Amino acid sequence: MTKRQRLIMIFLLIMSYLLVAVLILYKDFFLFQNQPLSTTDLKLHCATSKSPLQIDAKLIPHEKVLRNMSMFALVQLYFRYIESPQVTCSSVKRKGNVQDGGWQLCEDLEYAPDKNGCLVYSYGINNDFSFDDDMAKYGCEVHSFDPTMDNKTDFLRGERVYFHPRGVGGIDKQANDLVGSKDLQMLQIDTIATHRRMFKHGPKNRRLDVVKMDVEGYEFEALMTALHDGSLDDVRQLVFETHLTLNGRPLTKESYLKFLILLRKIHSKGFRIYTTLLNEACGFFNEVDQRDHFLCHEVHTVNVNIL
Ligand SMILES: *[C@@H]1O[C@H](CO)[C@@H](O)[C@H](O)[C@H]1NC(C)=O
Ligand SMILES: *[C@@H]1O[C@H](CO)[C@@H](O)[C@H](O)[C@H]1NC(C)=O
């Protein structure tokens, strides 16, 4: 090899090393086209869907205007509204059973409950503690309420899961079992405010992070009262199941009005729907708009007012 050939060899060697180095350093750039949306993209998407414009387009009019609307218009508004996400949550985790009994939790930084000392009220257990157990595993203190179970005393279900044989409603009262079980039993029903006072979770000394509610029709009065008296003001995530009607009672204009008024109030308190899950068991054919719909919706919201 001549000296000149050797120099060319060394030059080529150095050039190929440089080429490899450039490829390694900028591999992200070359591979970018094949990658799914990065977290920054999702965050951007999240910010866009939180813009007032999008939310305003989904607002429910005032009760006076609603009362003037036709049944057809109410039906259309109700299903469109309740089934449309208003904000994006990037990290959604299932807590509890995959099927009935489990609920989603939004674990995005701005909405996630604090893993040290968060507090959860879980209304409607029906012997399924899967959500409650998972929230305790996540790090929360969980209070599980259900007046219709066989257990009629307070007990510790597991580490950090406290059971109370009480229900939730619009006022403190003793009520007949609405669910229509075997023997007519008197159930203790209280407001969320009463529970917070009872367990010293007052708004001033303890934040209530998550409220889950699946209470077969009581959700309307329970939530209306709680939204009105401020006991949900510090809540980060509110998840609940709506029941347009129960026990095969006919759907009236009032059924839709009630829940549209509730949804409007929920929105005005800062709660935004990020996902709504449909319970197949609630499917029905709606004569009003001649379409298949659902009588119940599992609505999942995050509170944009307490960022
Ligand atoms: C209700 O409907 C009537 C007749 O269509 C109309 O005159 C009235 O202005 C409406 N009221 C409201 C509050 O929209
Ligand atoms: C709750 O009730 C069930 C069914 O009656 C019973 O098996 C269970 O031991 C009870 N748990 C407690 C802690 O009382």
TrEMBL record:
Keywords: Membrane, Transmembrane, Transmembrane helix
Keyword hit for Transmembrane: yes
Transmembrane segments: 7-26
One Pfam family this sequence matches: Methyltransf_22
Residue ranges occupied by any Methyltransferase domain in the UniProt entry: 79-250
The protein's name in its UniProt record: Methyltransferase domain-containing protein
Lineage: Eukaryota, Metazoa, Spiralia, Lophotrochozoa, Mollusca
